[in-house]
Amino acid sequence: MRRGEIITVRTTAFEPPDHMVREMSSGSVNMTSLWEYALAPAGEGCRVTLSGVTDIETGTFHTPIFRVMMVLGGSVKQGLDIQLDMVASTLETEAHRP
């Protein structure tokens, strides 16, 4: 993915404090993802179990280049770190709602 690429993220299910589902898509790479988060208390924090499916459509030159860049560029770990930060932010926001 190019620097500045926009990924659309929608929360499609949120059942605090233990379940969330997010859908992600990118028009320029023809990619869609569905990630389900299960949250459980663990000491002073929580354990996050992530199940997901990502579909990258074939048929364009973007597909093989995208897959190679995701692995070689470290984007998979970076993407997971960003997602976990977003989960934490969502949980913190919800915890402060009346």
Could you explain the architecture of this structure?
Helix content is 33%, strand content 41%. A hairpin with a 4-residue loop joins strand 2 (19-26) and strand 3 (31-42). It has helices at residues 62-72, 75-95, and strands spanning 8-15, 19-26, 31-42, 45-56. The mean pLDDT is 77. It is elongated and about 45 Å long. The chain is of the alpha+beta class. Strands 1-2-3-4 form a 4-stranded antiparallel sheet, with no helix packed on it. It is built from 2 helices and 4 strands; from the N terminus they run ββββαα.
Topology:
Elements: E1 8-15, E2 19-26, E3 31-42, E4 45-56, H1 62-72, H2 75-95
Antiparallel strand pairs: 1-2, 2-3, 3-4
Question: Can you describe this structure in just a few lines?
Answer:
The protein is an alpha+beta fold and 98 residues long. It has helices at residues 62-72, 75-95, and strands at residues 8-15, 19-26, 31-42, 45-56. The protein is 33% helix and 41% strand.
List keywords for this structure.
98 residues; alpha+beta; 2 helices
